[in-house]
Design brief:
Blueprint: E1 8-12, H1 17-28, E2 33-38, H2 41-51, E3 58-62, H3 68-82, E4 87-90, H4 105-133, E5 136-141, H5 153-173, E6 178-185, H6 191-194, H7 198-206, H8 216-227, E7 238-241
Parallel strand pairs: 1-2, 1-4, 2-3, 4-5, 5-6, 6-7
The structure holds nicotinamide-adenine-dinucleotide.
Nicotinamide-adenine-dinucleotide binds at residues 12-13, 15-19, 38-40, 43, 63-66, 91-94, 114, 118, 141, 143, 185-188, 190-193.
Amino acid sequence: MKNLEGKFCIVTGAGKGIGKAIAKRFLDEQAAGVAILEWNLELAEATAKELDPTGEKVIAVQCNVADSQQVKEAIDQTVAAFGRIDVLVNNAGITRDRIFHKMTDDEWHAVIDVNLNGVYNTCKYVVPMMRNQESGSIINLSSTSLMGNPGQANYAATKAALQGFTRTVAKELARKNVRMNCVAPAYVDTEMMRAIGEELLTQALSNTPAQRMCAPEEIASVVAFLATEDASWVTGQTIYASGGCVCS
Ligand SMILES: NC(=O)c1ccc[n+]([C@@H]2O[C@H](COP(=O)([O-])OP(=O)(O)OC[C@H]3O[C@@H](n4cnc5c(N)ncnc54)[C@H](O)[C@@H]3O)[C@@H](O)[C@H]2O)c1
């Protein structure tokens, strides 16, 4: 596989879970720099230290992706450190699960603000840079929940919206050699997934053709493929990494 040698990358929400696995994989692929944009700075700093003890390649930047001003400052800080951005992974995401007729306005808006507006916020600043440099790859984390998952009307709405956003912006950016794709996982073994509780987890696994949970590294490898020039002709796509849950 072609690697990420010389590439500077941003991964949002990379303090733990899938984002952390992506940051680690990017370093394994010889990325020149990885910026962890996290709303939990302490977590981001601990992860940066764990992945890059010498502090030469990884920076931890405090950033709530739902806050446009914080995103602007975080991206300015990243560009000041790295000089350019070649890869952006919009991984930060939250759930606020509740059956729709009981869902509060706060639960609805919190998920839209992070999972959808957060992607808008980062892209608003990074897309013009990538257009100007006439290269770049953006990967957005969608989810198989978009097919319909009781209790996740807010979450599913955002993950479906990301696919429409991705198809549209990918077409706009293709002539500038900038690619945008989605990865849609199912049942990845992270704190977000464990939060659904043992009963729902058992039920979910019995409905998964692969009959097991996915390791975060198995999503990181798909993201890494889309980030590299091996995927140079792939744009506007969603790759379902779901152990057979969604076959498209
Ligand atoms: N775990 C799964 O089974 C699964 C399945 C499909 C899609 N996804 C998606 O993958 C992505 C990562 O999920 P995960 O399971 O690793 O979640 P996680 O909860 O384990 O980790 C999410 C990380 O994002 C950070 N974060 C949350 N909101 C943020 C914000 N506003 N600004 C900056 N950082 C923020 C958290 O601090 C945390 O470090 C999410 O977009 C999620 O929707 C996960």
